[in-house]
């Protein structure tokens, strides 16, 4: 798999668009979700994702370590998201209908998810980023540290502080249970 990916990256670095899109395909949903967390609406998330793909394609010849392709691409999406939000300075609330795809149909589940997303959006960006990467993208602390180009200890601290900030914001029982279950899994 790594050899195939290295070959595809070499082809893409030489200008083969098909190879680039073959590399991008399995990562699209994950990268879009990251953009959506920042943008909080579909149109902006699509714009961010498209900008990220363009930047990645243009910057691909500079990628030195093919094994870090997904990490590198994730960092590009995060940076494009931050730039886009800063440039547009818009805050959009998440439409409750966005959560129709969740497996649980209970209205209280949707309410809990909306509360959680809104609380995440009110956190400092560094906490939002690590929590999204850790618990929504299911990345390990080591991977997050690579993406954010910071020490693992900083990532762990930001996860812990982010969870504490969520707990303060969402003082209800369901968030306490969620945070305890997350803290127990680390």
Give the C-alpha Rg: 18 Å
Q: Output mean pLDDT.
A: 80
Q: According to CATH, what is the class of the largest domain?
A: Mainly Alpha
The CATH superfamily of the largest domain is: RNA polymerase sigma factor, region 2, helix turn helix motif
Strand content bin: under 5%
Count the DSSP helices: 10
Number of strands: 0
Structural domain tally: 2
Q: What is the overall silhouette?
A: globular
The CATH architecture of the largest domain comes to: Orthogonal Bundle
Euclidean distance between termini CA atoms? 28 Å
Q: Assign the structural class, choosing from mainly alpha, mainly beta, alpha/beta, alpha+beta, or little secondary structure.
A: mainly alpha
Which topology of the largest domain does CATH recognise?
Rna Polymerase Sigma Factor, Chain: A
State the low-pLDDT regions, or none.
Answer: 91-97, 102-107
Instruction: Let me know the largest β-sheet.
Output: none
- The percent range for helix content is over 70%
Description of the structure:
This protein is mainly alpha-helical and 186 residues long. The protein folds into two domains: 1-91, RNA polymerase sigma factor, region 2, helix turn helix motif (Rna Polymerase Sigma Factor, Chain: A, Orthogonal Bundle), CATH 1.10.1740; 104-186, Arc Repressor Mutant, subunit A. Helix content is 74%, strand content 0%. The protein has helices at 2-13, 17-24, 28-39, 42-59, 69-88, 107-122, 125-136, 141-148, 152-169, 173-185. The two termini are 28 Å apart.
């Amino acid at each position: 798999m790594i050899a195939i990916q290295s070959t595809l990256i070499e082809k893409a670095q030489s200008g083969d668009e098909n190879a680039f899109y073959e590399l991008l395909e399995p990562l699209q949903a994950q990268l879009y979700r990251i953009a959506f967390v920042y943008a909080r609406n579909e149109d902006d998330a699509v714009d961010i994702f498209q900008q990220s793909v363009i930047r990645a394609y243009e910057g691909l010849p500079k990628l030195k370590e093919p094994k870090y392709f997904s990490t590198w691409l994730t960092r590009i999406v995060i940076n494009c998201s931050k730039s886009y939000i800063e440039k547009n300075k818009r805050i959009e609330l998440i439409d409750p209908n966005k959560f129709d795809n969740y497996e649980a149909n209970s209205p209280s589940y949707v309410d809990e998810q909306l509360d959680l997303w809104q609380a995440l959006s009110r956190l400092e960006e560094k906490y939002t980023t690590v929590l999204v990467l850790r618990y929504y993208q299911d990345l390990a602390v080591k991977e997050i540290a690579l993406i954010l180009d910071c020490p693992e200890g900083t990532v762990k601290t930001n996860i812990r502080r982010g969870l504490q900030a969520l707990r303060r914001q969402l003082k209800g029982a369901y968030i306490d249970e969620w945070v305890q279950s997350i803290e127990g899994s680390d």
